[in-house]
Amino acid sequence: MGTMSHSSTFLLPNLPTDNGPALTYALVILNQRLPRFTPLLWDHATHVHVCADGGANMVFDELPRFFPHDDPSDILTRYKPYAIKGDMDSIRTDVLDFYRVLGTKIIDESHDQDTTDLHKCVTYIRELLNPEYPNLCILATGALGGRFDHEMGNINVICRFPPMLIILLSDDCLIQLLPSTHHHKIHIQSSIEGPHCGLIPIGTAAGRTTTTGLKWNLDKTEMRFSGLVSTYNIVKENIVTMQSDLLWTISLKKKNEGCILQMTQMKSQILLDESWLVNMEDCNINERKGSLVQLLVERDRLKIVPNGV
């Protein structure tokens, strides 16, 4: 049985290049408030961005707020979805018309009422990219929060595509399926996630589950609803291992929220434009500029100012 490695490096400003085969990211945006790190996910999903029906409203209304110093029309043009797909019962007419003019593909599947908008988008992305990019990872924002039946419908989608890596994201946590066809090794990014985590059996009992790296590890333990479920667990090591059909969830840290947003807005200027300076007390920028991750944890000391100000 093979081993699958997992890591939340898509939440870091720079994707590492030394962790084995690179993943190809695609982004699906659903009809819930955008997480604070949405522009970062958009940058990493270089091949395709798909709005699920009313998710286009979220992009239209909320993305410009991440860039308060930029012209909103410039932001909307820069962050143009490749496609809008769904049953079109949530997207506003003005938003639909706006993106149609920009050239976004509009795919109306109102005839299909048996699958969710997320299911429709995953199917579309799989057909579009999967043959050419086997290491495909779909990131879905807005899949958590809001109505409980919507959340369960989205969780059902990741269970219906077990070979595919699909990660559901909110401001608070992420969820992904760990199928029993593999052993799983999760590399914890402690600067952005944890320590709270959970292992949740879904559909059927998860028999003989064994884990390492947690405060309360499991040793050939059966988990099921109406029995033991490993919620409120805590990550204790840099690597967590397990095998079973489980949903893995881990909390996302918010302490660097302001800095993450600021760095998202100014990342290109810091790296490419010498007219911008990063002033940090007791901090050598020549040592730090190669690692934006280290800059993120300096929220209270970070000041980004234009040259001459």
Low-confidence stretches at least 5 residues in length (pLDDT < 50)? 257-309
Shape: globular
Beta strands, count: 17
Amount of beta strand = 25-35%
As a percent range, the share of helical residues equals 25-40%
How far is the N terminus from the C terminus?
Answer: 59 Å
Q: How would you state the average pLDDT, rounded?
A: 82
Class per helix and strand makeup: alpha/beta
The total count of helices amounts to 9
Question: Taking Cα atoms only, what radius of gyration do you get, to the nearest Å?
Answer: 20 Å
Instruction: Name the helix and strand elements from N-terminus to C-terminus, one letter apiece.
Output: EEHEHHEHEHEHEEEEEEEEEHEHHE
Spatial sequence of strands, sheet with the most strands: 5-4-3-2-6-7-8-15-10-13
Biggest sheet layout: 10 strands, mixed
Q: Can you give a write-up of this model?
A:
The protein has 309 residues and is of the alpha/beta class. Helices cover 27% and strands 30% of the residues. It starts with a strand and ends with a strand. A ten-stranded mixed beta sheet has the order 5-4-3-2-6-7-8-15-10-13, sandwiched between helices. The chain has a five-stranded mixed beta sheet with strand order 1-9-14-11-12, with no helix packed on it. It contains nine helices and 17 strands. It has helices spanning 38-44, 55-62, 72-78, 93-102, 117-129, 148-160, 257-272, 285-288, 292-296; strands at residues 3-7, 24-29, 48-52, 83-86, 105-108, 136-141, 165-169, 173-178, 183-187, 193-201, 206-212, 221-223, 230-234, 239-243, 246-252, 276-280, 302-306.
